[in-house]
């Protein structure tokens, strides 16, 4: 049993013991895995959860789905086991990218693309693999938030590891800067050019190579869309240990390169624990095969961990990715999400088809909980025991129980729809922070006091692993507001021994802020590794490392 103590005055949660039959992703009418509510709800915890049964691999699965809003008063515990307005950029001797830290000059050592370069790429990729179309490039040069925009004139689409190798070997010899790109769903400017870097898009490398049902080992290419992998494994009776709101667009290579956390980290841990091996192409074109299938191998350095979370600055995750898929067995918590009342208000006011599952009573916090289980008596006992204790302790103020897949999907629509609602509300400053759980919401409240009525400060995130998504919503981007936010948000986080990037990475936005989370000696070592693996600095320049060390 894991015990978690919180300081809070309110909360909302869903508690469900389930298998993928009622997973929010399996609605065929969904768009990018975001679903609308299509039916009503059962209110209160006095009713029993509805039971569902189905068979998979000669195993009978017993499913219970429940959803609830609770209120915490004093200390509580749990039992265990993010298109908006284009930001105006200043143009002096540098470009401004919405963060006080992210102002950089183009590295003069990088070459400029010419016709000979394009001809070479067409020789190895063919005409279809070399993209110069302005409309296509406009999309690839711009991040999902329309906050960061590069000026690349070329996008390459390799179909194999060998083609990636030839691209990087040539770019390295010409000193052409490169930005690896997957689904381009990042939020810190890491997947788009800063200037005129060549974009290497991995979308065509999207094959599942193999899957072993005995060992649960999946081998796939780096361009596979996460949702496709999730569906594939669901159909095999397995569960993907990674799940994100952007799963309909993001690619597994990008997930690995950013060490994406997501909604299931509390159950399955980070990708450092789930990735068994990688194949990576270095800046000079050398292919590093680290795809060993052994679960135990203590023969030297485990180099794959250098590339997990390196944000494409050390190499490109290429043809194969080895991941351990977790069989859907055992009762355990798989998601523990929270959002505040302002988050819920944004979703209800800006997204069509979203309903509040509860009567219109104001709660300060809401929590969404999901559990995955296979033993009906034990699952029911665990669930009912938790709810009974919460009711007797006066922790629950109201709740709703999902009766079917549509209701379960609509519950998740609220949590996953927050980033979309924020974009529709206007300009938004996003901060992805890791903090001690008991301190998570203190920063939200201090930021509200600091900004007063000039902004709508919203807090939500992954409560199970202390990941706060702090969002400051304003009518338009404003330098005055930004100076109120930064560097205060980073200083506050560092003071409380947190991380300035829990799962989104550093990208361009936070590269110069790394010292708030890492000691100088550690950052210097990171720069040394970068220099060793990418001597000319062509891989995703201006990102991750501070510009004083990377230029």
TrEMBL record:
Pfam families: FAD-oxidase_C, FAD_binding_4
Annotated GO MF terms: (R)-2-hydroxyglutarate dehydrogenase activity; FAD binding
Cofactor: FAD
Reactions listed under catalytic activity: (R)-2-hydroxyglutarate + A = 2-oxoglutarate + AH2
Superkingdom in the source lineage: Eukaryota
UniProt-listed Enzyme Commission number(s): 1.1.99.39
Keyword Oxidoreductase (UniProt): yes
Keywords for this protein: FAD, Flavoprotein, Oxidoreductase
Residues making up the signal peptide according to the UniProt record: none
Domain FAD-binding PCMH-type: 148-327
Record-stated family: Belongs to the FAD-binding oxidoreductase/transferase type 4 family.
PANTHER family: D-2-HYDROXYGLUTARATE DEHYDROGENASE, MITOCHONDRIAL
Descriptive protein name: D-2-hydroxyglutarate dehydrogenase
Organism from which the protein derives: Prunus persica
